[in-house]
Amino acid sequence: MSLQAVLMPLFVQVALTFALWFWMVYERGRLLAGGKVQPHEIALRQPNWPPHALQVGNAAHNQLETPLLFYLLTTLALVTRQADATFVVLAWIYVVLRVLHAYVHVTSNRIPVRGPAFAASLLVLFVMWVVFALRILTRLP
């Protein structure tokens, strides 16, 4: 696979992460500037933000959890030349599920939808890691 094909899902995941973090900064800054939240109420990371600001913040923080394993796997797959069409298809499925999870998180926040989206993305990432590990381990001398 081409470098661009392998990295495009990663770039989309990075864009999602930055979009959510900038949105979180905007939401929190607006609330602080408007006096709706006082700095001492959140200075030690207390969850004293209004619900929607918490939703956006939680969605942003979620992008630093399992996606970290996705970033590492993509890097390792490139370095070891294991990034084939199967890898790219699974990477896209993972990223689409992460986008869906984030969308639900910042809108309706319906757990019956958000939970399965997260679980499906986790399963896809797990499969990606298992396939990668098996390919590497079965080719060892």
Task: Describe the structure concisely.
With 141 residues, this protein is an all-alpha fold. It contains six helices and no strands.
Number of domains: 1
CATH superfamily: Membrane associated eicosanoid/glutathione metabolism-like domain
Largest sheet: none
- Beta fraction of the residues? under 5%
Listing every helix as H and every strand as E from the N terminus to the C terminus, the arrangement reads: HHHHHH
Q: What's the total helix number?
A: 6
Detail the topology: elements first, then pairings.
Elements (H helix, E strand, L loop, with lengths): L2 H31 L5 H4 L8 H12 L3 H14 L5 H22 L4 H27 L4
Helix pairs in contact: 1-3, 1-4, 1-5, 3-5, 4-6, 5-6
Can you offer a commentary on this structure?
This protein is mainly alpha-helical and 141 residues long. The chain has one domain (3-137): Membrane associated eicosanoid/glutathione metabolism-like domain (Four Helix Bundle (Hemerythrin (Met), subunit A)). The chain is built from six helices and no strands. The chain has helices spanning 3-33, 39-42, 51-62, 66-79, 85-106, 111-137. α1 runs parallel beside α5 and α4 (66-79) packs parallel to α6.
Name some characteristics of this structure.
single chain; 141 residues; mainly alpha; Four Helix Bundle (Hemerythrin (Met), subunit A); 0% strand; elongated
